[in-house]
Amino acid sequence: MTRYSLALLPGDGIGVEVMDAALAVLDTLERRLGATYFLRRPYPGGAQCYADTGSALPAETMSALKNADVILFGAMGLPHIRYPDGTEIAPQLDIRMELELYAGVRPIRALPGLASPLSDPRAADIDFVLVREQTEGLFYARGRAVVTHDDVLDTMRISRAGTTRVADFALALGSRRQLRGKPGRVTCVDKANVFTSMAFFREVFVERAALVTEVRADCAYVDATALNLVLKPWTFDVLVTENMFGDILSDLAAALIGGMGMAPSGDIGDEHALFQPAHGSAPDIVGTGRANPTAMLLSIVMMLDWLAERDRSSPLADAAALLDGAIASALAQREIVPFEFGGTSGTREITAAVISALQTAG
């Protein structure tokens, strides 16, 4: 049996709390399977680390991330701790660039037992994935702004290589989803009617899509997509888009299924991968027990699926399915209702319910 080195980055705020929940559930999963898959080690990083040491991501942490088989991330950043230029501490962006984690994968899936903020009953069928290019776009301007007394110039970068690899990733994902009974439709989301960079992004996507004949490909403007994500989100399957557009749309999409506490994510490259809840450090609820660990637990499912696909490991695929089913079962009982849905179930209650579902799963 392969054992994987799992680098842990709890980070700041509720990142620490949901990481603790994740490890408790992972312990139970491994006991249930009778196998220890992960050799875990935590590493420092984040806003508090910056305040304490002067480094938001120590060199030894980055070195460990490069050598780990996979990375599990809590949350980093605190609004009252900032760099001298006024920007927030966000080492996760540095990790994406350093490890070439170009595909930000944000699954958006309605879970049974939880009320949707949308009144249309078809909202129960929401199941799509947003793929966000994470090494270019407008985020490329981070640390590169041209500043004068009267204005600031931030530059968007779109390259053929960067667009090709994220387009190919999204198209391959669409193909895999089609094999699982999903539509197999990939939509390029851009602003090609205004920006030359976005017209180029679309052009490259269309070129790559022409090589994958089994997948239906189309294109849409980002403003129209935002509208349709609210009006009819159940019609989407896979969306691929630029960095900033993806940042905004992924938060909007998370709202469709109840909020950031329900939204897992993966930052995936050709050699490395990091998995994390899509939410931030939420300092306003630290220590209250209100943090929803569901997004973190679903991120572990993504981690297991990624390793299973990479290594063609049926046991890991079975582990992913077992955990995913336990999360869905725990929430479907309607005895566990997170605070975002008007309930009173917090970190401890949700974690305990998932652990119980894992222990009793057939």
Q: Main sheet?
A: 10 strands, mixed
Classified by CATH, the class of the largest domain is Alpha Beta
Kindly give the count of domains. 2
What structural class do you assign from the helix and strand content?
A: alpha/beta
Low-confidence stretches at least 5 residues in length (pLDDT < 50)?
Answer: none
What's the order of the H and E elements? EHEHHEHEEEEHEHEHEHEEHHH
CATH superfamily of the largest domain: Isopropylmalate Dehydrogenase
At CATH level 2, the architecture of the largest domain is: 3-Layer(aba) Sandwich
Instruction: Estimate percent helicity.
Output: 40-55%
Secondary-structure blueprint:
Blueprint: E1 4-11, H1 14-33, E2 38-42, H2 47-53, H3 59-67, E3 70-75, H4 91-98, E4 103-109, E5 127-133, E6 146-147, E7 152-153, H5 160-179, E8 185-190, H6 196-209, E9 216-221, H7 222-231, E10 238-241, H8 243-256, E11 264-268, E12 273-277, H9 294-311, H10 314-332, H11 347-360
Parallel strand pairs: 1-2, 1-3, 3-12, 5-10, 8-9, 8-10
Antiparallel strand pairs: 4-5, 4-11, 6-7, 11-12
Helix pairs in contact: 1-11, 5-6, 7-8, 9-10, 10-11
Describe this structure in words.
By secondary structure, this protein is an alpha/beta fold. The chain has 2 domains: 1-104 and 271-362, Isopropylmalate Dehydrogenase (3-Layer(aba) Sandwich), CATH 3.40.718; 117-256, Isopropylmalate Dehydrogenase. Helices cover 42% and strands 17% of the residues. It has helices spanning 14-33, 47-53, 59-67, 91-98, 160-179, 196-209, 222-231, 243-256, 294-311, 314-332, 347-360; strands at residues 4-11, 38-42, 70-75, 103-109, 127-133, 146-147, 152-153, 185-190, 216-221, 238-241, 264-268, 273-277. The strands form 2 sheets. A 10-stranded mixed sheet has the order 2-1-3-12-11-4-5-10-8-9, sandwiched between helices. A two-stranded antiparallel sheet has the order 6-7. α1 (14-33) runs parallel beside α11 (347-360) and α7 runs parallel beside α8 (243-256). The relative contact order is 0.16.
